[in-house]
């Protein structure tokens, strides 16, 4: 750990916190239907979309209607993306002439991008045509992110409303998220990336003759436009197989900083927007503070672990205790670790270093980030509603200790909310533990494991945690592209996405219908240091208790194998 | 402040013994299913017992440890049922004393209130609507309303209060309770309760917890516990797969042990005991809650509606001033009032005597020759008649040694006695007193009005501080009074309430409650009259005074046997304490798990992964001893916390923030740390005894 | 059911047109106009022929060139198949690979002093890592100097000129682009012996 590394971490956190109120204000305006600076241009486009699609923008939906529209939209998305991959060889914009994607992989990829996971069992440059990348993946990058934001906004509305029957209109929330939030930011960001060297073209792959006279085929494509949305929308699906480690996706530490900010910008801004929507900014800051505590703890632990280097390699005569396997020189240790923690804290899944080659405890931080449900800033929208699920549990467990029926923001937390929050927690836990356990006993699951020993278990755990938590990063030594893994990981993604979203919307429906109890001195304060500590404690204990045995057998056992001490 | 009346010691030997028996009876599957966490534990215990027997017969590893684990799993279940049984036992002891009053009685049924011939029928056969005649010395055979007559009734059987109370037809004091005894006069009672549904029956049922329904909060908590149990089932069920991958084999009994230590057995076992104990605390405070839901709601109350009289001010007013009329001197008025009050034992009467003596140095004389006329509900006045000789015994009337008759009482009642129309300044004096928040008492002698005694409201000492405490707890107090706004404001300011409702009528009271509830607030109030019934029913916590009407007692969701309206404050605190106890033990229970992991995980895997010994931070001596120690700790902690569950966690009125800070520290961090020490200690003991 | 699905389907199609085609095509147009070189992949041409991309490592095996990091992209430095080892820290294969690379490096660079810089013995994340740290260059410098018959100081000057500091002074790590350095070396050599 060096001062410069810590400075990067510190400056990054500062930028995110400084950005949050601006993003928050903008988001709050957008989803209250307010007028934004870009309204002159985007307003007519928005109204045109509604007219074209027959969406009655003024008509709000009950939570069941909202959930129904969401599911319909997303299932159609899966079908379309699946079809696109299966017939890409006969469609235009395929200069590299890639063939149709096999059915199991196409299913996995379609589910992966619709669920905002962007798990990639394929290598982009060798598998997908430009058309599939643009009209398939990029589109889902936008709308899956917009779906997450819409759900979070609906939940925030539910807290803000009293005795209401509706939580918003899904199509309107989705359209506004894509049109007013994602598109403008992506357009600006794309140009910034191109300036720094990220390609943006529709050329065929370039054949170069190297200085030594060899041949090198250089993959090309509309990379920058997909980069921006993949980070801003916490999707993470790279244009190339090696994702943001690829110099074309992420040529400089500066572009890397843009990526990192893009990953957290909306998630952090949403906490602030939440505060504004419920009429108490401190509530938003408290959530962000809890996220910040967990984030910093993770970054520092991972940075420390990675800085110890790999004793097994140092013994071979390598200079310094430094683990550069699977890392890029321009990023080095600190930036790589910072990105690894950010990408798993958020549900991004883009990588600039190979997580499989991280030191066990650094890899464990990433793994645990996902197991906790990616609530540390988290996926756009998903992070906020995931965190609010933990808030519901924390308030319920400890809220009784002030001698009142637990309440959050004036809404009583009762049997129904607890039940629904637990369904979501259980969905995630069974998606990770259940499916991972299956993969460790079935021969079809075991063939994918690359490394022997505890690391192999970590690979399986990581794969299913990444799928169920909709992250998309991988211990990439894991051979994911088999029919079994494609099917089961696809299942994990669906469970982790929709078995969380539907209970969240049901909670939103229940909360919106409730009266709001005015706060008094007897109300559990949910904005102070005490509550932040409580929330962090509940997250760590509930998450920790669920996954500790598995993690003990994976990363912890591996860490101890390297001969290092535990504490 | 919360403990009162007959305190039953926490671990009364007789109750404990009975509870032990009940604890075994509660092992019936149907009973256990009500407590899902304990049910899972019992299934685990059964499974490990079967496995133990198999190992015992077929031979195998760890036989001794498996046997001990099975035993402790059963103890865990038993401790949980014992906790519930002992909580119920304490209620049963109280119910027994109530039941004694319900000795078989015979009722005298009559056809109509003025009928004179009656039929003797067993009390148990009385139907609602039957009329019964009860005379002095007889026990009232069932709950009902007095439809004719007036009588004093000894209700000590229910309330523990020895002073008899007046029950009369009409008005707000018409309700009588079966099992109470008429001391004087005779009344006709219309029975209102069906057999077995009487107040006493329900009270016994409630106290015993026989028909206990789970409260909303308890249900939500149960769901949380079930959810966590399922999560841990998932954790434990997937562990063999991960272990198998890692080349480890885990005995099934050890998995069962892991599961049981992880699932929240502590709170799961104590949850119903906490609920029963909460009701029990109310009962010992002489308040009967008709449902646990009401007790919970009490903890959530945001607004307290308090009647001014008797709650905020002393129910009895005190004489503050003599206001003579026309040409009567103040001393003359004082003398008359003094005489009329000599035998008046009410606080008001005594305060008149005290004021007259203090102002004019009057002394008690020879009461011979004086005939005192006591206050009655019909006349609404009291006074004294004296013959000339009697009057002579008093200094103040020596100059007028002739027979005379003095009356003091409610203005309209006394004015009706006057020979002429009330003098104008009398009317204005009465009005002035009323406006100032006082009660005017008109004094008349021989048909002539002498003046008015100003009975003033006295704010109870210490009440201001109590309202401050309530405010700190986030509870708003609203004073309800029939006084006009000006008077109400002055008393409200003096008492320090947050708000007041002046010139309150039952309708306005109801409106106020609805308005508060529309703002999302929970409202508590107490009341006694029939016209309070709608408001009592509307309020989230309605405490009916036992002296009130049957209608009020039906409408409220609690009945205060002492008829003490101040108790509303204590009821709120008991409600809060109940909720806090649940939260504290839940937090404690979940926080406990961290240490158990550090005991059991290294124990399970140290054979296949020797490096995981590093997780054995407690330095437990062997895998078997670690697992055994964790399971023993898990069982013993239930027993250790039974007293806390029954007593409730310490509650000191304070804001939510400081309560949370304190409880998080004690039950959160304490729950995290305690098992590390506890398991280590048990491990040392287990090894010293050579158990593993 | 159909009526429920209609707006969903239409919106999906509209979004496909908007974000899937209009957005990337518009960005491609604008990017090509504003930053044609970068948008085209930062290609480097020598004598009208593309010799590579400044951003991507390519294979260098001759002693007179600085060698980039080991690559596992395809068969090595395949810019259409990026890849990494993904071997875990306790992997036996990783240790064997690294040991072999260390051995090869020592043989290749007999005059190098000190331990082998980590990046030279470990595979990068992309397989196309275009950079080396100053230490990674310094380790190979004696070999390159000897092969080119240039004084080490001359090359050191060139390396210094090609060393990029951290972005904005604190982001990432100091680094040298190997392809750019090798191109400059060729230019230098060409200038010395025209």
Descriptive notes:
- The complex is a heterotrimer of chains A (567), B (692) and C (194).
- With 567 residues, chain A is mainly alpha-helical.
- Chain A has a domain at 23-204 and 216-278.
- Chain A has 19 helices and four strands.
- Chain A has a two-stranded antiparallel sheet with strand order 1-2.
- The longest helix of chain A has 33 residues, at 529-561.
- Chain A is globular, with a radius of gyration of 23 Å.
- In chain A, 69% of the residues are buried.
- With 692 residues, chain B is of the alpha+beta class.
- Chain B has 24 helices and 21 strands.
- In chain B, helix 19 (533-538) links the parallel strand 19 and strand 20.
- Chain B is elongated.
- Residues 1-8 of chain B have low confidence and may be disordered.
- With 194 residues, chain C is mainly α.
- Chain C has two domains: 1-40; 41-189, no CATH class.
- Chain C has helices at residues 2-34, 36-39, 92-108, 118-121, 134-148, 152-162, 178-192, and strands at residues 43-46, 49-53, 131-132, 163-164, 175-177.
- In chain C, strands 3-5-4 form a three-stranded antiparallel β-sheet.
- The radius of gyration of chain C is 22 Å and the shape is extended.
- In chain C, 48% of the residues are buried.
Topology:
The complex is a heterotrimer of chains A (567), B (692) and C (194).
Chain A: H1 3-31, H2 39-53, H3 63-86, H4 103-114, H5 124-127, H6 130-160, H7 170-196, E1 206-209, E2 215-218, H8 223-232, H9 253-277, H10 281-307, H11 311-314, H12 332-345, H13 360-371, H14 382-399, E3 407-408, E4 411-412, H15 415-441, H16 443-446, H17 454-468, H18 483-513, H19 529-561
Antiparallel strand pairs in A: 1-2, 3-4
Chain B: H1 13-25, H2 29-32, H3 36-58, H4 63-100, E1 106-110, E2 118-122, E3 131-135, E4 144-154, H5 156-159, E5 165-168, E6 175-176, E7 181-184, E8 186-191, H6 199-208, H7 216-245, H8 252-262, H9 265-284, E9 287-289, H10 292-300, E10 303-307, E11 318-324, H11 330-341, H12 347-360, E12 370-373, E13 381-386, H13 388-392, E14 404-409, H14 411-415, H15 424-435, E15 439-445, E16 448-456, H16 463-472, E17 476-480, H17 485-495, E18 499-501, H18 506-518, E19 523-527, H19 533-538, E20 541-545, H20 550-555, E21 558-560, H21 567-591, H22 593-605, H23 623-647, H24 656-688
Parallel strand pairs in B: 10-17, 10-19, 17-18, 19-20, 20-21
Antiparallel strand pairs in B: 1-2, 1-3, 3-8, 4-5, 4-6, 4-7, 4-8, 9-21, 11-16, 12-13, 13-14, 14-15, 15-16
Chain C: H1 2-34, H2 36-39, E1 43-46, E2 49-53, H3 92-108, H4 118-121, E3 131-132, H5 134-148, H6 152-162, E4 163-164, E5 175-177, H7 178-192
Antiparallel strand pairs in C: 1-2, 3-5, 4-5
Helix pairs in contact in C: 5-6, 6-7
């Amino acid at each position: 750990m060096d001062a410069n590394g810590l400075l990067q971490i510190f400056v990054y956190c500062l930028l995110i916190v400084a950005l949050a109120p601006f993003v928050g204000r903008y988001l709050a305006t957008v989803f209250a239907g307010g007028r934004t600076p870009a309204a002159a241009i985007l307003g007519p486009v928005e109204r045109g979309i509604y007219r074209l699609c027959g969406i009655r923008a003024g008509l709000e939906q009950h939570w069941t209607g909202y959930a129904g529209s969401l599911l319909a939209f997303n299932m159609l998305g899966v079908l379309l993306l699946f079809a696109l991959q299966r017939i890409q060889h006969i469609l235009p914009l395929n200069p590299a002439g890639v063939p149709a994607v096999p059915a199991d992989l196409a299913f996995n990829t379609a589910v992966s991008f619709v669920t905002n996971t962007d798990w990639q069992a394929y290598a982009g440059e060798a598998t997908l045509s430009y058309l599939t990348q643009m009209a398939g993946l990029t589109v889902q990058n936008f709308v899956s992110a917009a779906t997450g934001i819409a759900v979070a906004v609906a939940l925030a509305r539910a807290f803000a409303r009293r005795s209401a029957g509706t939580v918003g209109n899904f199509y309107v929330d989705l359209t506004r998220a894509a049109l007013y939030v994602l598109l403008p930011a992506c357009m600006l960001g794309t140009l910034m990336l191109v300036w720094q060297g990220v390609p943006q073209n529709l050329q065929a792959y370039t054949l170069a003759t190297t200085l030594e006279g060899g041949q090198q085929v250089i993959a090309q494509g509309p990379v920058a436009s997909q980069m921006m949305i993949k980070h801003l929308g916490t999707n993470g699906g790279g244009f190339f197989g090696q994702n943001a480690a690829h110099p074309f996706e992420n040529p400089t530490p500066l572009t890397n900083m843009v990526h990192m900010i893009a990953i957290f910008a909306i998630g952090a801004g949403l906490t602030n927007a939440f505060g504004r929507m419920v009429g108490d900014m401190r509530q938003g800051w408290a959530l962000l503070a809890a996220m910040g505590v967990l984030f910093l703890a993770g970054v520092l632990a991972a940075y420390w672990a990675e800085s110890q280097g790999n004793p097994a390699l140092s013994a071979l005569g390598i200079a310094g205790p430094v683990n550069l396997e699977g890392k890029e020189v321009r990023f080095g240790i600190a930036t790589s670790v910072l990105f690894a923690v950010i990408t798993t804290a958020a549900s991004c899944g883009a990588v600039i270093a190979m997580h499989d080659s991280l030191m066990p405890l650094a890899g464990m931080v990433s793994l645990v980030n996902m197991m906790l449900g990616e609530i540390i800033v988290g996926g756009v929208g998903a992070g906020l509603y995931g965190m609010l699920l933990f808030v519901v549990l924390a308030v319920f467990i400890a809220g009784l200790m002030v001698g009142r029926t637990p309440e959050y923001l004036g809404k009583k937390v009762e049997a129904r909310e607890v039940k629904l929050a637990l369904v979501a927690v259980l969905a995630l836990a069974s998606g990770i533990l259940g499916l991972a356990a299956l993969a460790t006993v079935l021969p079809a699951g075991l063939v994918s494991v690359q490394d022997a020993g505890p690391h192999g278990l970590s690979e399986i755990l990581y794969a299913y945690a990444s799928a169920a938590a909709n992250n998309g990063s991988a211990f990439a030594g894991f051979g994911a592209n088999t029919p079994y893994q494609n099917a089961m990981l696809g299942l994990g993604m669906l469970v982790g996405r929709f078995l969380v979203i539907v209970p969240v919307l049901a909670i939103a429906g229940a909360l919106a219908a409730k009266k709001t109890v005015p706060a008094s001195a007897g109300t559990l304060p949910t904005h102070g240091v005490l509550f932040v500590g409580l929330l962090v404690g509940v997250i760590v204990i509930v998450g920790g208790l669920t996954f500790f045995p598995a993690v003990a057998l994976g990363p912890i056992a591996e860490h101890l194998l390297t001969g290092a001490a535990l504490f | 402040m919360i403990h009162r009346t007959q305190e039953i010691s926490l671990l009364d030997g007789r109750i404990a013994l009975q509870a032990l028996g009940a604890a075994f009876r509660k092992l019936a599957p149907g009973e256990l299913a009500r407590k899902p966490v304990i049910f899972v534990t019992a299934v685990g215990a059964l499974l490990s017992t079967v496995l133990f027997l198999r190992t015992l017969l077929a031979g195998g590893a760890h036989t001794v440890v498996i046997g001990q684990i099975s035993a402790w799993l059963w103890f865990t279940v038993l401790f949980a049922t014992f906790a519930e049984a002992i909580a119920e036992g304490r209620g049963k002891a109280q119910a027994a004393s109530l039941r004694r009053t319900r000795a078989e009685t015979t009722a005298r049924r009559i056809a109509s209130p003025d009928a004179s011939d009656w039929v003797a029928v067993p009390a148990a056969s009385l139907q609602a609507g039957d009329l019964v005649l009860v005379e002095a010395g007889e026990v009232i055979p069932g709950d009902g309303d007095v439809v004719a007559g007036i009588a004093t009734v000894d209700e000590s059987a229910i309330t523990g209060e020895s002073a008899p109370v007046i029950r009369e037809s009409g008005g707000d004091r018409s309700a009588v309770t079966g099992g109470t005894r008429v001391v004087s006069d005779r009344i006709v009672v219309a029975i209102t309760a069906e057999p077995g549904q009487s107040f006493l029956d329900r009270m016994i049922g409630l106290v015993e917890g026989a028909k206990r329904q789970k409260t909303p909060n308890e249900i939500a908590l149960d769901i949380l516990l079930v959810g966590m149990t399922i999560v841990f089932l998932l954790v434990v069920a997937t562990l063999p797969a991960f272990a198998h991958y890692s080349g480890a084999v885990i005995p099934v009994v050890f998995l069962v042990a892991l599961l049981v230590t992880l699932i929240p057995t502590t709170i799961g076992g104590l949850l119903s005991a906490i609920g029963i104990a909460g009701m029990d605390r109310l009962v010992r405070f002489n308040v009967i809650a008709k449902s646990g839901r009401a007790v919970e709601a009490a903890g959530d109350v945001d607004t307290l509606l308090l009647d001014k009289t008797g709650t905020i001010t002393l129910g009895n007013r005190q004489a503050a001033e003599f206001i003579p009329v026309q040409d009567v001197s103040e001393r003359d008025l004082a003398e008359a009032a003094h005489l009329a009050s000599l035998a008046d034992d009410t606080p008001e009467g005594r305060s008149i005597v005290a004021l007259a003596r203090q102002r004019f140095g009057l002394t008690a004389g020879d009461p011979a020759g004086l005939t005192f006329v006591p206050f009655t509900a019909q006349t609404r006045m009291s006074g004294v008649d004296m013959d000339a000789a009697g009057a002579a015994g008093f200094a103040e009337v020596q100059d007028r040694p002739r027979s005379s008759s003095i009356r003091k009482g409610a203005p309209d009642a006394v004015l009706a006695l006057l020979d002429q129309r009330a003098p104008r300044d009398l009317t204005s004096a009465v009005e002035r007193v009323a406006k100032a928040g006082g009660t005017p008492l008109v004094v008349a002698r021989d048909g002539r009005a002498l003046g008015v005694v100003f009975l003033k409201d006295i704010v109870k000492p210490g009440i201001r501080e109590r309202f401050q405490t309530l405010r700190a707890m986030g509870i708003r107090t609203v004073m309800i009074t029939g006084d006009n706004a000006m008077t109400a404001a002055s008393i409200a300011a003096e008492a320090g309430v947050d708000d007041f409702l002046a010139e309150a009528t039952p309708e306005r009271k109801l409106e106020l409650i609805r308005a508060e509830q529309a703002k999302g607030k929970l409202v508590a109030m107490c009341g006694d009259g029939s016209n309070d019934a709608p408001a009592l029913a509307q309020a989230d916590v309605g405490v009916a005074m036992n002296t009130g009407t049957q209608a009020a007692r039906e409408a409220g969701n609690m009945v205060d046997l002492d008829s003490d309206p101040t108790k509303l404050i204590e009821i709120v605190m008991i409600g809060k304490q109940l909720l806090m106890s649940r939260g504290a033990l839940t937090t404690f229970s979940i926080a406990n798990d961290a240490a158990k992991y550090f005991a059991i995980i290294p124990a399970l895997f140290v054979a296949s992964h020797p490096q995981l010994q590093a997780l054995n931070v407690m330095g437990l001596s062997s895998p078997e001893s670690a697992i055994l120690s964790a399971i023993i700790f898990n069982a013993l902690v239930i027993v250790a916390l039974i007293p806390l569950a029954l007593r409730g966690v310490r509650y000191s009125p304070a804001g939510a923030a400081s309560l949370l800070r304190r409880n998080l520290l004690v039950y959160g961090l304490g729950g995290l740390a305690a098992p590390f020490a506890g398991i280590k200690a048990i491990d040392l003991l287990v090894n010293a005894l050579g158990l593993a | 059911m159909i009526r429920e699905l209609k707006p969903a389907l239409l919106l999906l199609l509209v979004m496909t047109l908007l974000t899937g085609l209009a957005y990337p095509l518009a960005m491609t147009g604008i990017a090509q106009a504003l930053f044609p070189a970068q948008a085209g992949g930062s290609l480097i041409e020598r004598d009208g022929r593309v010799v590579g991309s400044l951003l991507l490592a390519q294979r260098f095996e001759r002693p007179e060139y600085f060698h980039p990091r080991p690559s596992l992209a395809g068969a090595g430095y395949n810019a259409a198949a990026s890849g990494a080892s993904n071997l875990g820290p306790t992997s036996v294969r990783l240790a064997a690979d690294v040991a072999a690379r260390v051995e090869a490096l020592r043989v290749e660079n007999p005059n190098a002093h000190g331990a082998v810089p980590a990046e030279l013995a470990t595979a990068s994340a992309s397989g196309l890592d275009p950079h080396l740290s100053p230490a990674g260059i310094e380790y190979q410098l004696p070999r390159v100097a000897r092969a080119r018959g240039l004084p080490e100081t001359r090359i050191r000057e060139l390396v210094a000129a090609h060393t990029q500091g951290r972005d904005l002074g604190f982001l990432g790590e100091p680094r040298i682009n190997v392809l750019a350095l090798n191109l400059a070396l060729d230019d230098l050599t060409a200038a010395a012996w025209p």
